[in-house]
Write a structure and sequence with these properties.
Layout (H helix, E strand, L loop, with lengths): L38 E9 L8 E5 L5 E6 L23 E5 L22 E3 L8 E3 L3 H14 L20 E2 L7 E2 L2 H9 L3 H14 L5
Parallel strand pairs: 3-5
Antiparallel strand pairs: 1-2, 1-4, 2-3, 4-6, 7-8
């Protein structure tokens, strides 16, 4: 089984324009609602924060559409508060994950009234159930990794170092960092880390595992 969800699944991971409007969801619909679960993903492009209570970022989604994501902090989470917001995990080029995102502020074009179409924006909480999370890789790289792992994972556990499959005479050991990659020994573990790219992938896979603990 692949250690990554199928990020090419546009039903589970929709583009911004395919997320529902506030007028299209029930009044009690929230990020933690389980009736429908989906995740809006996008690569962080720019920090546009103006006030300490509402960090705001420009995000680019899977269709290369830009949109704004505002994170609504509670009073005790503000910048400068103990254990408050510092924004260190929200780096340009990393992927933001917004569960059950809803588009707010949408406006239809009305030429007669001189109104241009506004596609809206999304809001999310932080450090709470259903709050915004981040993966240390771009969305483009995540999708590419997902496709690669999906192909390589066919046939059960395989050593990332040598490609050998687990058998009756060979037991695999799991990477203690991400708990997603397998090796048939120390030599292969060193090779996988230094030559096969796991040094870069490990933090990504760990983040994905924490956000999506079960296969999506």
């Amino acid at each position: 089984m692949s250690p990554l969800p199928d990020f090419s699944d546009e039903a589970l991971f929709p583009a911004f324009i395919n997320c529902p409007l506030t007028s299209e969801v029930p009044p009690n619909f929230t990020a933690t609602s389980n009736e429908v679960v989906y995740f809006l993903l996008g690569t962080i492009q720019e920090n546009m924060t103006l006030t300490p209570r509402t960090p705001t970022y420009i995000i680019v989604d899977r269709q290369k559409t830009s949109f704004a994501c505002t994170i609504k902090l509670k009073f005790h989470q503000e910048l400068g508060k103990e254990n408050g917001w510092d924004g260190k995990g929200f780096k340009k080029g990393w992927t933001i994950v917004i569960r059950n995102a809803v588009r707010k502020g949408y406006q239809e074009e009305d030429a007669e009234a001189g109104k241009k179409e506004k596609k809206g924006f999304v809001e999310s909480g932080w450090r709470e159930e259903g709050g915004v999370q981040v993966i240390p890789a771009s969305l483009e790289n995540l999708i590419a990794m997902s496709e690669s792992w999906k192909a390589d994972s066919e046939g059960g556990k395989k050593c990332q170092g040598c490609g050998k499959s687990e058998g009756a005479d060979s037991k695999m050991v799991r990477c203690k960092g991400c708990e997603s990659i397998w090796y048939c020994g120390k030599e292969c573990q060193v090779k996988g880390w230094s030559e096969k790219g796991h040094k870069t992938e490990c933090k990504v896979l760990k983040s994905v595992r924490e956000i999506f603990p079960k296969p999506c």
